[in-house]
Design a protein that fits this description.
Helix 1 packs antiparallel against helix 2 (about 50-60). The chain has helices at about 40-50, 50-60, and strands at about 5, 10-15, 20-25, 30-35, 65-69. The protein has a 5-stranded antiparallel sheet with strand order 1-2-3-4-5, covered by helices on one side. It is α+β, with helices and mostly antiparallel strands. It has 2 helices and 5 strands.
Length: about 70
């Protein structure tokens, strides 16, 4: 999955696959996580958010199943 670099203190890049509804988050510290069944609207909102990390914590983490790659 292609990831787009973002301006964030914690997140290096974000990728999204609309066919599988998979959101992929790469952190500056190294780990990459995939979140399953994330609607495209959530991805769009996260990319538009002033703070990607705040959006992740408020709207993605704990709502969608995830695993570390």
């Amino acid at each position: 999955m292609e990831r787009i670099p973002v301006s964030s203190s914690n997140i290096r890049a974000i990728g999204y696959d609309p066919d599988s509804l998979t959101l992929e988050i790469e952190f500056h510290s190294g780990p990459v996580y995939q979140y399953a069944d994330v609607p495209e609207g959530e991805y769009d909102a996260m990319m538009a958010a002033d703070s990607k990390g705040t959006y992740l914590n408020a709207h993605i983490r704990g709502r969608y199943s995830c695993f570390k790659l």
